Each structure stands twice: as structure tokens, then as C-alpha cells.
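Pipeline run #58 for the internal structure catalog. This entry was flagged by the ingest filter as a single-chain record with no existing model, so it goes straight to prediction. Upstream metadata was stripped on purpose; only the residue string is passed forward. Reviewer on rotation: M.T. Logging verbosity set to normal.
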Amino acid sequence: MDKLYLIDTNVLLESPEVIKEYNVVISGLVLRELEKHKLSYNKELAFNARIATRFINENVDNLIFDLKDYQVTFDESLDKDYTDNKILQSCLDNSYSLITNDLLLKLKAKGLNIEVISPKDNDDLDYKGYKFVDLSDSEIAYFYEHINENIYNLYINQYLIIRDLTKNTIDKYRWNGKEHIKLKIPPKKFIRPENDLQECALDLLNDTSIPIKIIAGNFGSGKTFLAVKMAIYHINEKGNYAKLMVVRNPIGTGESIGWLKGTKEDKTDDFFVPVIQNLDGGEFEADKMIQSGKLLKNIPFFMKGITVDDSFMLVDEAEDLDVKLIKTIGTRLGKNACVAFSGDYQQSEDKFIYNNGLVTAIDKLKGNPLVGIIVLDRDVRSEASKVFADL
């Protein structure tokens, strides 16, 4: 029997012609989503849904329709009513392969050994926390005349980077749900952004009204550096928080060196080196901050039941956290506290590919007024480090 491919809604919306290239199965879940999108207030989405429906009708004789309502049984911890989970269950029950452009669904499918095809052929998130717009002089003028209107359909706390038609940056704003506001970052004598996205990240890390911050992106893009520097700025320069709590899950890439003797600190100290090296005084500064109570180190295993008050909590290498661990850490936040998750979802260890808490958090929390997200995309570490990014 020829291999069957269950197609996701996002592919039909973006590339409906794909149904001519494979033995495609269309589920009742997807049909219901298309019907809903046809009535969307988003004109582009509604138009694409109508085009997809037309493609289906024109090729109906070559398609297979699976209208079963699947019960999610492959993982008891997951939401049984979530469409993506039902799609995965249908693939497992019928040995379907999957066609999707959704990174989160793609990661879950790979973790379940489901073959995945992505027409867009990328490993990137649809939502990155910002939008570039290249505008003519008249369009720029129109924007400034309508500064309080959400012209470009931004999520709350999404950044807008305005460029001219030669792609030179003109201005940067963040949409707060009511108006576009200018970015506010520390003085350049304290920290200087390398590019537009780093400036957006600094604005997010600087804003105490947004207690949940996600700084994602590839290695070398400055995630940990920016977060550490801003934590120190809040603590030592502004007095906004009393201490920095650094959280890392002690998961490593490479071969294990076996069981380590000693205390919790002895066994986990090396995992905090990437954070400590971003302090101006390195280990000396870290020791001084620990002695004064300004720096705490923790791992998720020991955090259940505690409350974190008056703190800037930095969760580094957050790609190695599942949804349960993200919840465990996030629910520790107490009074006058914030949390910054920093990580590269493309470097997740194997056990977190299927259930990646960082990607899930970005997907589920975007647009929440208490949450800000920036996905950095440029390696600023060195020219040599960029060479290895493509291996």
C-alpha cells in the first residue's frame, strides 16, 4: 500500500498544491479549521482558506478523508482536546506520515518517530516576537499619523521594525495593545546592542511591567549575555530586584563523565559557567555576589514548592526543559519578580525534542500582556563560530 500523508491546516493555507504531490489524507479536524478560517476577520487568512477549500473540491477524487474523532492516548499528560495532539494520535493509529510547517508539531512528531515533510523546509518558528516592514516615504508618514492604530496586526508586546525600501532601519516600536511605544534601553555605556533585534531584546529585558520574558535564538546571538547584563543592571544600577537567581537544567551534550561525588553545588557548578562568564568580574564577581546574597543558583529538580520573590530569575538553556518543567519554574514567581527564559530550540537534547517547553511557551503565550518574546537570529560571537552553525 502506498504511504499516506496526513496534511496539516497550515500547509493547505500556504501551499494547497501540495495535495497533488502526495497521497494525502485530510482529517475532519483540518476541515473544521478551514471552515472557521473562511469566516476570519483576517482577510488574508479568510482568502487563503477559501483557496484551500477550492483545491480540495477540485481534487476530491484523489484524496482520502479521515473524519474520525481521535482520543489522545499516547501521552496522558497532554491536552486531550488539543487539535495537534489528535493529529499526532491519528498518525500513530494509522501509520500516517505528516505534512506540516508547524515547528512545534514537527518536533513532537519527530519525537514519536513519525515521518514529517515540511514544504517550507525550515526549522523556524512562525512567531518571533517582531515584524519587519519595508515602507515608502508615504507609508512611513501614514504610520506616524496613525501611531495608535495596530495597522500591521501585531500581537501585544510584538516589536515593529520600520525600514525604508533600501532596508535601512528607520525606527523601532513595541505594540502594547493600545499604541506603538518607543523602545527604552539602558545607556550605551552600560550595554550596547549589536543589531536591531538585540535592541528589542534589551527593551524587553528592561521593562519591569513584562514579568515573563523569552529570549530565544541560535547560538552566539547574545541571549545569555544580554540577560545577565540586564539582570545586573536591574539589581546594581536600578535597584529593581534584590538578587539574581540562575536556573539551569543539568543536561549536557556529549558523553557523561559518570557519577560525580560531592554536594549539589559540586555536581552542578560547571553547568553555570556559561552564565558566570558573562559577569564583568567572572568567578570573582560571582563569589562576591553569592556571599552578599545577590546571586543564587538552582536546578529545576529542587524548585518545587519554593517561592521566588524580589528576584530576576534567569532560566538559561531553556531548550532543555519540557512543558512540566517550564510550568514548575514559572509558577515559582512571587512578588516583585520576573523570569527570563533563554535558549536555542534547535539545540534541544533528544529527550526534549518531542516535548519542548520553550517552543510550546512561545506558541501558547504569544500575545499575553505579561509576556514578551524575541527570537534573535544572528551569530554575533565570531565569524569562525558561524562556520559551525551550518554543519
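catalog note: Residues 254-259 have pLDDT under 50 and may be disordered.
catalog note: The longest helix spans residues 43-58.
status: ready for reviewer M.T.
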